[in-house]
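tool_call predict_complex ligand=magnesium ion
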Amino acid sequence: MSNKRPILSVENLTKVFGGVVAVDNVSFTVEEGEIFAVIGPNGAGKSTLFNMITGVLPSSSGNIYFQEKRLNRKKPYQIAQMGITRTFQNLEVFDNMTVIENVMTGAHITMKTNILTAGLRLPSVRNEEVKTMERAMEALEAVGISDLAYEIADRLPYGSQRLLEIARAAISNPKLILLDEPMAGLNSEESRQLVEVILKMREQGMTFLFVEHDMETVMSISDSIVVIDNGVKIGEGTPEEIYQNPQVVAAYLGD
Ligand code: ADP
Ligand code: MG
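tool_result ok
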């Protein structure tokens, strides 16, 4: 029935920090077009998992495949060029830049120019900058904050800065976006806006892998969920299956 194809496969992935096994032999597969959630208590290993997928941290063992290509040992910029971008658990905006300039920095992973050619101010470089600005504006429109394009980024409300980060992650036209606790710190109106943005981008073909503590959001927008506790995968399935998994309920959802 399903014509879905795997986009990301994590196989027996492990990360050891000194004596601590932060991620312990975790495997799962994300399919194209899915909204896939990773849940688990603080310290479960969720951010470490994201850091390995995006090349920020080397894995201790196991494999990561993106569209059948092995990601192990690739650098973060190479992984970004292949089509995986992310946001971080803590807000990472360039405070003293405008919103549109912040979004434009996300395009540089795919731009042909470098600092040297940019310094020469060649017409081709100016052209590319103009195109990047247009794309940045489109990315801001997609997340609903294009009216804030020329504001200084850190003057924006927290929720708008979160949307700015998603625009920056989306401008390079990635195939997969990783979001680390996107709803944290948002008020209910901001959360609702962010959920709408994620659902709209998914409709346009984007795949999302996200870590989130807000169970209402996780259960309402996820196609698949993996539960991690103490580095170990303790459950996997649809929201309905997760709610009915006694081990997951005992360890995490609790009462
Ligand atoms: P989560 O995102 O699920 O809250 P983390 O991935 O941040 O969990 O952390 C998992 C475990 O790994 C924790 O015990 C944490 O203290 C440890 N850890 C994370 N990053 C590092 C690091 N760079 N060096 C040492 N230990 C780390
Ligand atoms: Mg974390």
